[in-house]
Amino acid sequence: MKSIVILGSTGSIGTNTLDIVTKFPEQFRIAGLTAGSNDRKLEEQLRIFKPDTVALTDPAAAERLRERCRDLPVEILSGIEGQSQVAARPGVELVISAIVGGAGLVPTLAAIRAGKHVALANKEPMVMAGKLMQEEARRRQVNILPVDSEHNAIFQSMVGHRREDVRRLILTASGGPLWDMPLDKMRYVKPEQALRHPNWKMGPKITIDSATLMNKGLEVVEARWLFDVPPEQIEVLVHRESIIHSLVEYSDGSVIAQLGLPDMRTPISYAMNYPARMPLDPPPLDLARIGKLTFHRPDHDRFPCLGLGYESLRVGGTMPATRNAANEIAVAAYLSESIGFLDIANIVRTTMDAHQPVDVSSLDVALEADRWAREKAAALVRALSR
Ligand SMILES: NC(=O)c1ccc[n+]([C@@H]2O[C@H](COP(=O)([O-])OP(=O)(O)OC[C@H]3O[C@@H](n4cnc5c(N)ncnc54)[C@H](OP(=O)(O)O)[C@@H]3O)[C@@H](O)[C@H]2O)c1
Questions:
Q1: Residue 310 · residue 217 · CB < 8 Å
Q2: 234-288 pLDDT, tens per residue?
Q3: Residues with Cβ < 8 Å from 235, sequence gap 6 or more?
Q4: 125 domain residue, yes or no
Q5: Ligand 1 proximity of 203 Cβ (cutoff 6 Å)
Q6: Which of 12, 95, 118 maximizes ligand 1 atoms within 8 Å of its Cβ, making it the mutation to test the pocket?
Q7: Ligand 1 within 6 A of 122 CB?
């Protein structure tokens, strides 16, 4: 039985992971769960899955949980230190990293440094400090297994092949809910419209990132570090149906892809149980019924956030971390209706232009770039919402 921790258990990836654990109780034991501030949902989960330890980043939420769970033999921690302690807990074999945003960097790195294998959904830490995370993983001989459906598809398409034979990684993108919308209309898009993803049911931050294509820009950086491939060998292809989850082209012209219905439980379970597959029993992929699959080049004029992803990677150092942090602030401001949809890209662009990148030589350097960019972007939000 594999002992696992889920960082971000109350979110979309977290609950999908628990759904898999419920289906295969003889294979997994939940040793720890964490969340940000949702003590009610974490309480429901801990009463069902009975972990030894849980953490909430928000200390007040952790205190409320302690008050209500005096009857249970569970250790309740708080703060980012609490998240890291759960992630590094002795006896844990696999940590599912599913916190949203840069808040996941410290606990995910703590898991790697404690010698845990990581199933990584939380892409932002890879964007902030991918080189550092991979160096640490190599040093501790742990695997970072991709959960993001595109990277999981690439991972699956590379099993049994030589890395040096790869010519291109082709990341597919659904195009999100605004793919067909003209630029002059995008200015007025409200959050409820941008949150209506055509194919995937996900948390709000990644859904807005899908609408701006920032998500694909983050994924390009994630792919660079996960697969050690330079940016010029990573391409993005818009594929509206989300059936082909990504492709790998080899030097002999062969292209290998992974296909499936859009259901995050497939990549999550593959990362949880690699190399064995789990009998999830999804409905069959009926390609004859689907009829045709379509492909488009990305439109960089209407979706500048994708280009910002490539640019941050070419500049390197702390630039991707800066872009990520500015985006987090801008997306939160957009969701609270303080700024407009097109302001997201402008805030990220202006923050990147003001940044002097340095090499990400340590965790502190990545965290300082993150802090700087959040302040800068917050000032830009304030100026816009006046
Ligand atoms: N959803 C998908 O299908 C999908 C697909 C591919 C990749 N991903 C990636 O997976 C990650 C999670 O996405 P999601 O859609 O599952 O997000 P989500 O539904 O918004 O859930 C986020 C989780 O992170 C926790 N959290 C938020 N802020 C935190 C903090 N400061 N400290 C500790 N925990 C915190 C939340 O806890 P509370 O409930 O307490 O706020 C929740 O458990 C993201 O990086 C996303 O890009 C998601």
A1: yes
A2: 999 999 999 999 999 999 999 999 999 999 999 999 999 999 999 999 999 999 9
A3: 168, 169, 170, 171
A4: yes
A5: yes
A6: 12
A7: yes
Residue 70 lies in a domain: yes
Q: What separation in Å is there between the alpha carbon of 215 and the centre of ligand 1?
A: 14
324 touches ligand 1 (CB under 6 Å): no
* CATH code for the domain in which residue 66 is found: 3.40.50.720
pTM for this structure? 0.97
* Residues found in the chain: 386
Instruction: Please report which confidence band the pLDDT of residue 198 belongs to, taking 50, 70 and 90 as the band edges.
Output: confident
Residue 28 lies in a domain: yes
- Are 15 and 23 within 8 A, CB to CB? no
Q: Which domain holds residue 45?
A: 2-146
Core vs surface per residue 14-26: b (16+ CB within 10 A) or e: bebbbebbeebee
Pocket-testing residue among 17, 34, 100, ligand 1, by greatest number of atoms within 8 A of Cβ: 100
Q: How many CA atoms lie within 13 A of 268 on its CB side?
A: 23
The answer, yes or no, to whether residue 146 has pLDDT greater than 90, is yes
Number of domains, the chain: 1
Q: Does residue 74 sit within a domain?
A: yes
